[in-house]
Amino acid sequence: MSDILRELLRVSEKAANIARACRQQEALFQLLIEEKKEGEKNKKFAVDFKTLADVLVQEVIKQNMENKFVFIPGEKIILRLCPTEEETVELLSKVLNGNKLASEALAKVVHQDVTFTDPTLDSIEISIPQDILGIWVDPIDSTYQYIKGSADIKSNQGIFPSGLQCVTILIGVYDLQTGVPLMGVINQPFVSQDLNTLRWKGQCYWGLSYMDTNIHSLQRLDSTRKNSEARSQMTENTSSEAERSHPFSAVISTSEKDTIKAALSRVCGERIFRAAGAGYKSLCVVQGLVDIYIFSEDTTFKWDSCAAHAILRAMGGGMVDLRECLQRNSEMGLDLPQLVYHVENEGAAGVDRWANKGGLIAYRSRKQLETFLSLLIQNLAPVDTCT
After folding, report:
1. Which of 89, 268, 324, 333 is in the most buried spot, having the most CB atoms within 10 Å?
2. How high is the pLDDT of residue 353?
């Protein structure tokens, strides 16, 4: 099973190379953008775009992995990769108005072999039946930020509100029978830029959670962090008054509802961050930059959440349905309503079939989530949570 995860990581890195190559020349990049058709659009946006990078990335992942997984397509593929680099050049030339140099550069990246090594991954010895595996892929999450291409956005305590850093490639593997996420890969293609060459470097995060095995790429970092926390507890507590009175931090969408924002301000105080991209906001929780990612709308989808959900499960956290959490009676000992990935929404059409209809909360610790929910519910004005 480590072979499949290693292949997912390798493919995600190839996808990141394509995303970077497509973004390299602004004039060329404008040729690669088209507006999504009505059935493909996210209703959150008045105009929603896809790029050739989306299509190339999705097709590369599909071509490499379709013999190992059941694919449920989020968007229709409109481009088939050719078996040789020369044939792909010819195909891309038709898309790129005969731009031979650009076509050759992209074809080279598409067909380039990529290796990926991780010592933590090499230690995995686990067997999962391959016929139970389904996969969700978001080839370019935060397409708007990808198209806009801002490279000079400053972070707020490590969190970028917008810009290329918010772009992610998301690959999530789930159990076809139960809908439980098992493996996740988040590739962040644009992490740091060399100011001389203007070339970008990225970062990849992964996690696996199956039966009694929970392993992820941040384990060594987590171990260092826990040792640091233990040392700090032995010294004088220097937390600010604000942190003691508002113990939680959260990342939200700029489009979050006013009722949620008002409640969060009472729970988190000033420790609320706004950021673009569902994948990136989830990654902020994975990285430990915030405690919670909360979103009350129904405009994220299974391909947005599956990868991060799998990684968070491996870390002892998860991703739950917000609406069901608000309706849940914790005193009855009801289980937390984890998101699942194998059942479409009854009566819905188009991409809405796979929407996270009740919104979501991503978290790293169940104990933290329970406390956070208790405070959130106390501070929410009376609202109809069934809408």
Report:
1. 268
2. 94
